[in-house]
Amino acid sequence: MHRRRRTAFLLTAALVTAAPLLTACGSDAHPGAAAVVGDDRITVSQLENRVNEVRTAQRAATTGEAQYEQAIAKSGGLTRDTLHGMVLDRVLHRAADDAGVTVTRKEIQEARTGLEQQAGGAKALEVSWLQQYGVPPERLDDNLRVQIEAQKLASALGTDTSQPAFWKALSEASKKLDVDLNPRYGSWDVEKSSRVDAKLPWVRDVTAAAAQKTA
Fold first, then answer.
1. Cα–Cα separations (whole angstroms), residue 184 to 84, 96, 108, 125, 161
2. pTM of the predicted model, to two decimals?
3. Is residue 2 one of the residues assigned to a domain?
């Protein structure tokens, strides 16, 4: 998936998140971990829980099995995309922290209020974010924080999220964190700035299969 399509949640012209420029050794040196980002270990169980949050929200927002199956079909790469977002959050936060950038609760609430007005209400916004970006209602504020953080980081760097200076900051942060992705979920190609699937025919994404069966 192209980096901008996945991470640039086009909320408004002012709130656009950026794609990551991550590095990873792609080893399986951390059993039970989907990824290790600095001192933060993202477990497979944590990843499964996040995927199930989306599936549960999709079921609640759809009418009948056919609609639910369509929603699943449209988000077939949900497990890998979810891990991508979980890693991105940490990398972006490290870059923002290095630049002295913080996001307040008030900023998140103001952004959400404005978006709710545009969408036609809180429920409409939640449904829209779920359908378009795979963000369940309970993660909406977290998603907004990431986007505001990206925008403020770009501003602090005197650039915007589409420029090399922004990508460089994320790249430096990812190197400091030494991102280590479980090969089950692919690896990060620094030159292409995107996740790539591991070319290992014997590696199966059992997490995604399990999530679909139990959702």
1. 13, 29, 34, 33, 29
2. 0.75
3. no
